[in-house]
Specification:
Elements (H helix, E strand, L loop, with lengths): L2 H140 L4 H50 L1 H7 L1 E5 L4 H7 L4 H10 L2 E3 L6 E5 L3 H17 L4 H29 L7 H9 L4 E2 L2 E2 H19 L3 H10 L14 H11 L4 H9 L9 H15 L8 H16 L4 E7 L4 E6 L6 H18 L7 E6 L9
Parallel strand pairs: 7-8
Antiparallel strand pairs: 1-3, 2-3, 4-5, 6-7
Helix pairs in contact: 1-2, 2-15, 5-7, 6-7, 7-8, 9-10, 9-13, 10-12, 10-13, 11-12, 12-13
Length: about 525
Amino acid sequence: MTIEHVIGGAVGLALGGGAAWFVLWTLATRGRRTARDVVTRARKEADEILRQADIQAKDETLRRRVEADEEITRSRGELKELERRLSKKEDNVDRKLDVLTKKDKQLEVRQLQLQKHREELDQREEELGRLYEEEKTALYRVAELDRESAEKLLLSRIERDLEHDVEAVVARAVERTNEMAESRAKEIITGAIQRYASAHCQEVTVANIEIADDAMKGRVIGREGRNIRSFEKATGVNVIVDDTPGVITVSCFDSIRREIARRAMDRLIADGRIHPTRIEEIVEQTRQEVDELIQKEGKQAAFDLNVVGIHPRLITLLGRLRFRTSYGQNVLEHCREVAHVAGMIAGELGLDVKLAKRCGLLHDIGKAMDHEVEGGHPEIGGNLASRYEEPPEVVNAIASHHNDVGQTSLYAVITQAADAISGSRPGARGETLERYIKRLEKLETLASSFPGVKSANAIQAGREVRVIVNSQKISDSRALKLCHDIAKEIEAQLTYPGEIKVTLLREMRVVEYAR
């Protein structure tokens, strides 16, 4: 082997090693570039994943926050509703507590009166015992009778004396009891009858709507009754569609709702388009018209009487009386009459005419809410007047015009008198003249039918009957019992609003001639 071959082999080896190194370097460089690309893509994908996760986390946080806000709002609404109900229940409890407190006070007064009466009876019994012993001793001493005869004589005299005393005691007890209980009982009963008696309900809770064609009844009822159900739901009344020709009946205790229903039904029938949507529109329009009418009536009544400064809420309640009746008498017109009469009486007495008219106009304001609030209308009206800062004279006149509370001013007395005048005049309460005269004649005939009665005269539109008796036949003690018997017979046989006062007169007339 020559040196050329050696050199050639070395050069070949060097070239082969260089080529191998170049190949290895190239592969390493490409691998590092590939690795960097993989790492970059991985980082980008990781950043994208993190960004998406962050967006989803924010969306989830926002959604939960909205749900939490809705839950908090709903909880607050429920708490407010619960607070409102609790407040309403507290008000009801307070009113009932006031009623119970008043009843407790009345019972205490009654107990004191009964105790006083019992003490009077005990004293009278002791006095009778003493008189009995004195009379017995006197009889033994003066008449010189035996024991048996004296006892018979004494017992007969005591029996006659006791008959008068017992009748007098009974009469006083009955009078006191009637003053405290009978008036209130009659007021409660007549008030209940006024609101719920079937005969009265037939007159004041039903409105008849005339229709030209009975085919309209089918349109009012609607397919499967949907129109009539929508109308009843919107107005809160009962609609009666029966076989009566040419009439649709609307029935409801609330006179305002009944008036809204009557007007709405008239408009629907005149319009001819009767379907649930149209019914709701017409009812809402009619309700607004009636509300405006109520405001107008209340303001007009106050304006006509020159009564200013009445609270808007009382004006609204005054207007509602336009749709309320009492024994057939419109309550708003009755209040106007009472105000005019009270003003005239106050003018004659030199008192404040405007204040008297204010008392008369507002005296029955409680009747606008007596079907919504517990208690009689004088109590409700007095509370309303006090709440809306009416003068004390007005508050007392309203609360005391049926003697539920004591009268503290002349205006209360004037209001009560004017109320009686307006309610008792002939024809005021929907009674025909013929029925009115028959009722007075029956009252006089009944009172005259008792033995010893000379004459009986009905006065004050039948609210009082004056009975004149024969003084020769009826004694003072007998007169007390006779008056009581006449009153009981009137209660048993006659039907009348309010109460009838029986006044019995026993006149002793002595005539002598000088010749």
